[in-house]
Structures are given as C-alpha cells and as structure tokens.
Amino acid sequence: MTTLWKIFCEENRYPGLWQHWYKNQCVAIGWPPPEYQINKTMPGNKGWNEARNAVLGMEIGDYVVVALKGNQIGRLGQITDKKIKDEEWDELVPKRPNLPVGEVGRRILVRWELITGPDNMDFVVQLPEGKGFKGSYLRKTIARIEPEIISLDELRSQMNNLNNWVNLHGKFSYEKALSDYIASYPHHLENGLLTYPDSKVQELVFKDKTRLDVLLMDKQEDAVIVECKQNAPTSDNFKQLRGYMQNFKNIQPDKQVRGILVHGGAQKISEELLLEAKQYPPIEIVSYTLDVNFRPSSA
To answer: What is the span of the domain harbouring residue 201?
Structure first.
C-alpha cells in the first residue's frame, strides 16, 4: 500500500523556500547538527523526536505532499532518495550570523509529479473547506497521512481542480492594481473601451453599500462593469458581478450593461462555470497574466 506523507514548508518564515524545494527536487526539515543528531532522540523535544521518527520511516517510493500556510499545498512528489544523515546536511536556507550552519538541510529527494497540480510555479492549491489537514496533521511539521484523512486519489483530484489554484503570494494586491490598470488603459482589455464619462456614476456606492471595481463604456456606448479577481472564477464571483449589473440598471434603467470578469489562475475553467457564465445576464470571462521584468538602468 502506498504511503502518503505531508511536510510543511516554512515559506512565511523563509520566503522563497518553496521555490528552492521545487528547483532542487526535494523537501527538507531543519534541526541541524551537531546540536541534533539523527541517531539520537532528545528528551523533552517533541518536535525533533517526531520529525526524526518520520523521516527515518519514509521509504523510497512513498509520496509526499508539500503543505503551506492557510490549508494550501504546493506539489506532490515521489521519494527517490534520502539525505538526512548529519554528514549529509545541505542547507537550503543560507548561513548567516544567527544561522551558522544555515537551516532546512536534511533533504528528502523527490520526483515531482508534474501532471498533478498547477503548471505555473506562482500558483499553489487551496484545499476546500473539509478537504484539508486538521488537528495534529495541521500542527506537525511532517506526518504520515492516513487514507481516511485524504487518499492519494482524492488529493490528486483536488490538485487538478482548476478552481482550487491560487497565487502563492496572495498578499500582493493584484485585484486593486489590475483594476487601476484597466481603468487607466481600458482599450487593452477590449478595443474601443473608454472610461465611463460620468464621474459621479463611476464613484457610486450602491444602496447595499457595494462598489464596483471598474466602470467603462464600449463602442455602442453601453456600460461595461469589470470585476477583477486574483484567482480562478467561482459561482460567487458571477453572483457578485450580476448584482452590480442589476444595481446599475436600477439607477440607469435606459442603459444596456455588460459584465466582464477578469480573473487570474488557470486560463482553462470548468464546463460548469462556462455554462453558468452564459446564463442571463451573460458574463464575459477574460483571464490575465502578470509579467513584470527588471533590467539595469543606463545613461
């Protein structure tokens, strides 16, 4: 029977650590030598003792899933080798004054299952409520996942659900930045789009206290409401946008109004969502990608 393990990546403590794991085809734990020795437990140190027992219990061919903060997961991999001995310490967090031997250096080598999960390294999987790790599984750095918690097949299914793909660095305000960009350059979204000419309507707060993201006008002088979402679209997003469209019709009953949902995440979305978008009033769905490049300035 295939064994599935979960290992927590301290991305919040060491930004970029997950990227290093991915590029080096490994997962890893800390507890550096000589203070910690793989052949010895430490009385009273539950964290080390549990992690030590877990990595010793891992076998070639077992599967491991990378857990991140907020019930998110990175990728699924199959163990190909272990480099966990004290003399094999190979830190992924570089040495510095307060980390004389670095950190996270007991490596478990893996072969990532590239057909499972997002195909973009900027994205991870947000496990739905009720499908994530709970209790002791959530707290432990590393743990064996019993099938009754989540099976390997169910995990793959959740990871391949495009609606679960989210941006790893969700704290960056993509939605606000994207809204501002579209408001400034509406023609990049669709040829002929212009900023809505009535500034009072642009800044309108509806009776239900909601405020739309961007209000534009198309070639036919119809109103176009644009809603920006950082991740893959959901049914709730459609409901929200249709609510804005109805609120607008209530104050501008003679105006035709279109709705455009601009989303991140995967470009492909499910057939169910496509059908839902076609319901009345229909919503146009457009995906975006963020591409920022840096280069040295010159005279």
So the answer is: 174-287
d(CA 202, CA 224): 11
Angle formed by the axes of helices 235-251 and 271-278, nearest 10°: 10
Q: Per-residue pLDDT for the chain (299 aa), expressed as one digit of tens each?
A: 789 999 999 988 888 899 899 999 999 999 999 999 999 999 999 999 999 999 999 999 999 999 998 888 999 999 999 999 999 999 999 888 888 999 999 999 999 999 999 887 778 998 877 776 766 666 788 999 888 888 899 999 999 988 888 877 654 566 788 888 888 888 999 998 888 775 555 556 777 777 788 888 898 989 999 999 887 888 999 999 999 999 888 888 888 999 999 988 767 778 888 999 999 999 999 988 777 778 898 77
Q: Which residue has the tokens 């975006």?
A: 288
Q: Per the structure, how many domains does the chain have?
A: 2
Supply the CATH number for residue 232's domain.
3.40.1350.10
pTM, to two decimals: 0.66
Residues 140 and 271 in one domain: no
Task: Give the residue from 123, 151, 167 where a domain finishes.
Answer: 167
